[in-house]
């Protein structure tokens, strides 16, 4: 039992690290899409990630089975869907609004699990998800709350990421996480190249200014983060993972404050409080309140 709890704690801390890195990814994506069309950016990102993963974990490729290909393709399809809507959407909206709208998967995941697998979320997961979404809204929606095409596209990416989190949670318990990571990257790369070929004009030359953003996206936001996510979700639920990963929007906003010297307002502080409450509710099931009430009852009886 103790070993299981330790693995669960390590998985939570690992997903927390992923959220921090993905928070920085919003800045990197916003920078890169001003220099290269969105689908070509995704094609470069996932192609390089696939090649590097295949080189580093070459011995795993020999063990790929037909079932692995199927599972990895399904995860990769949802991954492509999420990033396609997010990357195209961020062209037409701000990084902070993109961060908030992307994080709608924190609300979608428990309800998708309920609808598809009849896995009804407990009241604490639902309350935690709602509190987290309110907090993210307060933290990120500062100057503009109007909805444009970019906002709508980014909102749709929440569906893709919800599907990716749910299928990852299912399939990493049936297959090797490293193998699934390689296959999902390859799937996203192929679909990105197809979309780029059909919908975009190829860039004449890659700008050198792209290099820092692309390297961050490839090595940190893609390779490192998805390896960690795929391994960590073997030891936690999809709803639990979604709550922690949604903190990427918080770190995206905080990094914007540090890098771009944005103001930290009272509204943003309230957003942080709501998000802390959501994590506390989801993680503890408010057991400390129940314990306190039980102790008071015991004392009164004495």
Outline the fold blueprint.
Layout: H1 2-32, H2 38-56, H3 58-61, H4 66-89, H5 95-102, H6 105-117, H7 123-140, H8 149-171, H9 177-199, H10 210-232, H11 238-245, H12 248-260, H13 266-284, H14 287-301
Polypeptide structure, described:
This protein is mainly α and 302 residues long. It has one domain. It is 80% helix and 0% strand. It contains 14 helices and no strands. Helix 1 runs antiparallel to helix 5 (95-102). The longest helix is centred in the first third of the chain and has 31 residues, at 2-32. It is globular and about 60 Å long.
What distinguishing features does this structure have?
302 residues; mainly alpha; 80% helix
Quick overview:
The chain has 302 residues and is an all-alpha fold. The chain is built from 14 helices and no strands. α1 packs across α12.
């Amino acid at each position: 039992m103790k070993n299981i709890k330790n693995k669960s704690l390590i998985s939570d801390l690992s997903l927390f690290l992923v959220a921090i890195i993905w928070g920085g990814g919003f800045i990197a994506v916003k920078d890169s899409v001003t220099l290269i069309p969105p689908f070509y950016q995704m094609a470069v990102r996932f192609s390089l990630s696939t090649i590097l993963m295949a080189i580093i974990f070459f011995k795993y490729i020999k063990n790929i089975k037909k079932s692995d290909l199927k599972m990895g393709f399904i995860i990769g399809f949802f991954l492509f869907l999420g990033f396609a809507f997010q990357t195209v959407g961020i062209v037409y909206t701000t990084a902070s609004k993109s961060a908030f709208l992307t994080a709608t998967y924190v609300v979608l995941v428990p309800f998708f699990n309920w609808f598809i697998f009849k896995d009804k979320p407990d009241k604490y997961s639902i309350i935690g998800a709602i509190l987290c979404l309110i907090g993210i809204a307060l933290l990120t929606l500062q100057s503009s709350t109007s909805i444009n095409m970019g906002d709508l596209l980014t909102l749709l990416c929440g569906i893709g990421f919800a599907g990716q989190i749910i299928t990852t949670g299912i399939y990493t318990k049936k297959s090797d996480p490293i193998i699934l990571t390689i296959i999902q990257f390859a799937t996203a790369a192929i679909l990105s190249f197809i979309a780029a070929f059909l919908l975009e004009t190829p860039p004449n030359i890659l700008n050198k200014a792209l290099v820092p953003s692309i390297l961050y996206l490839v090595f940190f936001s893609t390779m490192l983060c998805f390896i960690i996510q795929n391994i960590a979700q073997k030891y936690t639920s999809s709803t639990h993972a979604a709550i922690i990963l949604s903190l990427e929007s918080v770190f995206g906003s905080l990094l914007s404050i540090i890098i771009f010297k944005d103001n930290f307002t009272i509204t943003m502080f309230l957003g942080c409080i709501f998000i802390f409450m959501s994590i506390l509710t989801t993680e503890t099931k408010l057991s400390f309140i129940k314990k306190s009430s039980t102790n008071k009852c015991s004392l009164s009886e004495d």
